[in-house]
Every structure is written in structure tokens, then in C-alpha cells.
Automatic annotation (TrEMBL):
Pfam families: PASTA
Domain PASTA: 104-176
Protein name: PASTA domain-containing protein
CDD domains named among the record's database cross-references: PASTA_pknB (cd06577)
Highest taxon above the source species: Bacteria
Location of region: Disordered: 33-103
Signal peptide (residue range): none
Length: 182
């Protein structure tokens, strides 16, 4: 005959349940309803389930002290002040004619950048608001500047004195310092 161990499991479960009940009695948990706590809670009976609540019990031989009712004070809600006139909402871009779809483009006039240091030229263009600056190798070798201060501007497109949108592409033909412009 084979044993399944179910009897041992049932015994362990009974021992655990007995230990829990014994701990509750030793710690002062009572199954008696507590009307005083229900009254102090303003009608809420504070029970867990239907017929019991947690309350301290006096040690054996001593008389339990009556709980002292605690008055519950509620303040009236604070008055909410509302201004007589609400502030006007901020206008939307559609109302003002501003916003990225409605803004007039920023216009800049290009100075003469020929024979100037590429780093200085790029800083000047960015300060003017230009945001599409392209460099090309003026010799046609396809080199790209890694350090702008080592290159100089040979020509620019659009030419000097032209007024362009800041978002228009500005192309600078450059050579390394010490090289001649073609």
C-alpha cells in the first residue's frame, strides 16, 4: 500500500490554524461586537465581516476599561473664491496668425565670406539664424572639413549682398588653410 502524505499535510494545516487562533486570543482579539467603536466611528461599525471586531481585552482578573468616546469635529468646507471675471484664454496661433505655419520667414542679407575662416563664417551664419549650411571642397577632391578652423571659404552661394530666407541652403566652397582657391 502506498502512502500519499495527505494525512501529514492535514495535521500540519490543523496545527497552523490552531496556532493562529491561539495567537489571536493571546493578543487580545475578541469576536464580540463593539458598539462603542461603532458609535465613535460615526455609524461605521468598524467590523471585519459580520459579527466581530478587534478590541483590546484586559488581562485575566482585571476589569476592562471603558473606551472613551472621541468627538469627531468636521469643519465646513472653505469658501472657494472665484474672480468676477475669468482671465481671457491666450489666443491660438490660428487667431493671431503666428505659429510655424503662419510665421513670415526670417530674412538675412549675406555678407562677403570669401577668404574668411570657415569656423568664423559658420558661427556668423548661425548667429544670423541660418540653419542649412553646406560645405563643399572647392578643389573637387570631395574632402570634408573635420575642423572648421583649418579651412577657409573660397566662394559662397548665394553671393554676398543677397537677401535670403534663413532656412534656405547656403553653400560654401572651401579649401584647407594654406591652399589656393581654384
Amino acid at each position: 500500500m502506498r502512502r500519499t502524505g495527505r494525512g501529514a499535510g492535514a495535521i500540519v494545516a490543523l496545527l497552523v490554524a490552531g496556532g493562529l487562533l491561539g495567537g489571536c486570543v493571546a493578543s487580545g482579539v475578541s469576536e464580540e461586537p463593539d458598539e462603542g467603536a461603532a458609535a465613535a466611528a460615526g455609524g461605521r461599525d468598524g467590523t471585519f465581516g459580520r459579527d466581530w471586531s478587534i478590541k483590546p481585552e484586559a488581562p485575566a482578573g482585571e476589569k476592562a476599561a471603558k473606551p472613551t468616546p472621541v468627538p469627531v469635529v468636521t469643519a465646513p468646507p472653505a469658501p472657494v473664491s472665484t474672480p468676477d471675471t475669468a482671465p481671457a484664454p491666450a489666443p491660438t496661433p490660428a487667431e493671431t496668425g503666428t505659429g510655424w505655419l503662419w510665421e513670415d520667414p526670417v530674412r538675412i542679407t549675406l555678407p562677403d565670406f570669401e577668404d574668411k575662416d570657415l569656423g568664423d563664417v559658420r558661427a556668423a551664419l548661425e548667429a544670423l539664424g541660418a540653419d542649412d549650411i553646406k560645405t563643399v571642397d572647392a578643389t573637387g577632391d570631395g574632402r570634408s572639413p573635420w575642423v572648421d578652423s583649418n579651412w577657409k571659404v573660397c566662394s559662397q552661394d548665394p553671393r554676398k549682398g543677397r537677401e535670403v530666407d534663413a532656412s534656405d541652403r547656403i553653400t560654401l566652397a572651401v579649401v584647407k588653410d594654406g591652399e589656393r582657391c581654384p
